[in-house]
Design brief:
782 residues; alpha/beta
Length: 782
């Protein structure tokens, strides 16, 4: 049999890497410069660069990461027409220019597509190229350098736009998002199918990836060419910190790369006609492509029908089997992709190396263009083989949303024909989709993740089963105790959660309330800095840092924010009391010792104590002031609806004495509650007032007997509990409207900006340092 003259062959590949470290902005790479350099290398690699340059009529550019996200920023300008800009730089003259859609499947999907166009006579040849310069962008921004990436040429081109189908509106609303936020649901579902604990599965992921890092160490274009042991990869450390359960840093794709890659495909007869030898050509044998259902609608989160069917068709159309493939590059943005591909191929990854580059964690995750590097490396690998060999590339887009595969060889497939993936796509589309729901009630966790920030968990979600289908629900912002409990549970899968559907979104809560706190359950919240008790419909909240005079730091603020959120939304809790542990302090304000040490200073959006920035509360909170209420402590009292205090209680806004001001509402609320002149006295001098004067001024409702503040607050709460809770809430709602009309919230909204400016002053730093060192501050008015 003869080779069809239009049979597509790869005749040139090129790869480039830059280790630019910020020296000389003029030498900084850009996505355009790297894509051009890779394309030039592919032309040179063909051995007939000038002839190829005259032959190709199509230029395809893989979409950059920055152009793949809606509303993404371009700090150094944006190239508005990448294909024509690269065309002009390369000195090409093509009739068709294409800018791809988003997705890591694109390099292989584009090879498949344009190989078929070449075979069908609709193209004389194509250059595919792409690049990322994310590392250069991050370096320049860190060093405050200015780069110019706005170069752009004119000319018509086909812009395939964003692919917004990889997540549904339901998924985005309820917690799914970037890859490190979404893939853990698939990873944890697969882990559960294997019956492994989080720790054991981390070991498994690390054993899978350690050989990848060894391959990257020897690859000349790897961005992170250092072999890492499975022990290192499995162990949390400052170099391998938690990203999102179950992942540590080196389990996931690393995008801080400056890499470009290109591939040239010509019809066989044209390649021969310009003098390219057969032994230089690499042949695409079978190929396939398919799109899976949205993540939450898939029947089995632990499997990928798209991976299974795409690999099956690629092998079938190649007239081969997995055991005949010698070289593999399985997309490795996250371990589950490699696991499911190996499972579909019937391979044991302990015995077969499944990458030729080193994979996205170690070679580098060059955005949508990674698999162009895999294809280029596969071409070079097969060219060096003395005998006919086969290599397989699996490219993955989105969240195992789009799969494209190609089987390559250094020997031709004589009966090559285009591949129709319609049948496998129909098989996926015809499978039953799981209904996704938006409703309140109890559900069983099917999968989940917790995303980790520098100091604490930052977000999380659960995918949970109910009789009618599946519910995706996210954790409410600021709920660190719930996130910590979910992350620390021996295994949260199978646990019951409460779903609270409100304002168009699903939120999850532990199945316990604030009274029981999950005693005896694996998924149990622990509040370290706050004690809770419930008596009927009354919640008692006790600030529990007596050794620090119940001063508050970030972790305590977030615990309180979660408690107040749940109090507000609980049908069983009608009134709350807040007090301090011990007999010395209610709350002495912000823990300036933590501030002085540079610790976590973040505060939830609901403000100091999780309370001071709440403007929509509909349930009363009573302050039982059992001692010192200074600074933020007084601001909590002012934010409460009622307050009682023991005779020994002292009140002050002393912030001016340490170079601050009462930025958690103290300035505004005190002025409203006691009048401007009286408030100015306390605000500008920082002087202390005892409970009797606080009562006269109107800061508190009344003074209790010694040791009786909590008892008096309980009596208040009992009185409120005895009346209509709906009437109480209606009264609070009416008062909220009054507060809005008096413009308290806009006034408070300026405090953050004022405080940021203040914290840059020398007097602020001096005040904090003097407090921590127990000395008098030396003010400089600067």
């Amino acid at each position: 049999m003869t080779i069809h003259p239009n049979c597509p062959v790869i005749v040139g590949v090129g790869q480039v890497k830059s280790d630019w470290s910020g020296t000389g902005p003029a030498s900084a790479p850009s996505p355009i410069s790297l894509a051009c350099e890779a394309a030039e290398l592919s032309l040179a690699d063909s051995g007939r660069g000038d002839a190829v340059r005259q032959t190709v009529d199509t230029l395809v550019v893989v979409r950059t990461n920055a152009d793949s996200l809606p509303n993404s920023t371009h700090p150094f300008g944006r190239c508005e027409n990448p294909p024509r800009t690269i065309e002009h730089r390369l000195g090409l003259s093509v009739s068709r220019a294409v800018y791809s859609t988003a997705g890591g499947d694109q390099p292989q999907a584009l090879v498949n597509e344009f190989a078929e166009e070449i075979f069908e006579g609709r193209s004389n040849g194509v250059i595919l190229t792409g690049a990322e310069a994310i590392s250069a962008m991050k370096t320049a921004r860190k060093l405050k350098l200015t780069l110019d990436w706005a170069e752009s040429s004119n000319g018509e081109f086909e812009d395939r736009g964003l692919d917004m189908s990889m997540l549904t509106d339901y998924e985005r609303t309820n917690g799914l998002g970037p890859p490190t936020q979404t893939y853990p649901a698939l990873e944890n579902a697969f882990r559960m199918r294997l019956g492994l604990s989080l720790e054991d599965y981390r070991v498994r992921m690390s054993e899978l990836l350690a050989p990848f890092s060894a391959v990257a160490e020897t690859h000349p274009f790897a961005q992170f060419p250092q072999s890492k042991s499975s022990e290192f990869l499995a162990t949390p450390s400052t170099e391998n910190y938690a990203i999102a359960d179950p992942y540590l840093k080196w389990h996931v794709a690393q995008d801080a790369v400056n890499q470009g890659a290109a591939v040239i495909i010509l019809p066989y007869a044209r390649a021969r006609g310009i003098g390219i030898a057969d032994q230089h050509m690499i042949w695409l044998h079978g190929h396939a492509r398919a799109v899976d259902k949205p993540v939450t609608e898939r029947p089995d989160l632990s499997r990928s029908r798209a991976i299974e069917l795409v690999l099956e068709q690629a092998l079938t159309t190649s007239n081969t089997t997995a055991d005949q493939i010698k070289h593999f590059d399985i997309y490795s943005c996250f371990p589950v992709v490699v696991e499911l591909a190996a499972e579909a191929l019937g391979l044991d990854w302990r015995e077969t190396i499944l990458t030729v580059t080193g994979g996205l964690p170690f070679f580098g995750g060059a955005g949508n263009n990674y698999s162009m590097h895999a294809i280029a490396t596969m071409v070079e690998t097969l060219r060096g083989a003395p005998q006919p060999e086969l290599g397989l590339v699996l490219a993955n887009g989105g969240f195992m949303s789009k799969e494209a595969a190609g089987v390559y060889s250094n020997a031709p497939q004589l009966d090559w024909t285009p591949t129709d993936s319609t049948a496998i796509q129909k098989a996926i589309d015809d499978e039953r989709s799981v209904p996704v729901l938006a409703k309140s009630g109890e559900a069983e966790i099917e999968s989940y993740t917790v995303t980790h920030g520098r100091f604490a968990p930052s977000r999380g979600y659960v995918i949970a089963k109910v009789d009618q289908g599946r519910i995706l629900a996210r954790c409410q912002t600021n709920h660190r105790a719930t996130l910590t409990a979910l992350s620390a549970a021996p295994d949260a899968i199978g646990e019951t959660v409460r779903i609270d559907h409100r304002n168009g979104a699903n939120f999850f809560l532990p199945s316990d309330g604030l009274g029981s706190l999950g005693e005896g359950r694996p998924f149990r919240r622990i509040f370290k800095y706050v004690n809770l008790s419930v008596d009927g419909h009354i919640l008692e909240v006790t600030l529990n840092r007596p050794a620090s005079m119940n001063s508050l730091h970030s972790a305590a603020h977030y615990e309180l924010a979660e408690i107040w959120d749940e109090f507000e939304h609980s049908d069983d809790l009608w009134v709350a009391i807040v007090t301090g542990e011990g007999d010395k302090a209610f709350c002495s304000g912000n823990d300036l010792k933590v501030t002085a040490k540079g610790g976590d200073m973040s505060v939830p959006r609901t403000g100091f104590g999780g309370l001071c920035n709440r403007f929509d509360r509909t349930k009363p909170i009573i302050a039982a002031v059992n001692g010192v209420a200074m600074g933020g402590g007084l601001e909590i009292v002012l934010a409460c609806d009622l307050a009682v205090a023991e005779p020994k209680a002292r009140f002050a806004l002393p912030e001016v004495k340490v170079g601050l001001f009462a930025a958690a509402g103290g300035v505004q609320r005190l002025t409203r509650q006691i009048g401007r002149k009286a408030a100015m006295d306390l605000i500008l001098t920082g002087r202390h007032v005892m409970a009797d004067e606080a009562e006269r001024l109107g800061i508190i409702n009344h003074v209790s007997k010694p040791g009786g503040a909590l008892g008096a607050a309980r009596a208040f709460a009992k009185q409120i509990q005895a009346v209509s809770p709906t009437a109480v809430r209606a009264s609070k709602q009416a008062l909220n409207i009054l507060e809005q009309n008096e413009a308290l919230e806009p006034g408070l909204s300026q405090n953050s900006a004022i405080l940021r400016r203040l914290m840059k002053t020398k007097d602020f730093k001096e005040g904090v340092a003097a407090f921590a060192e127990k000395r008098d501050p030396i003010w400089t008015n600067s």
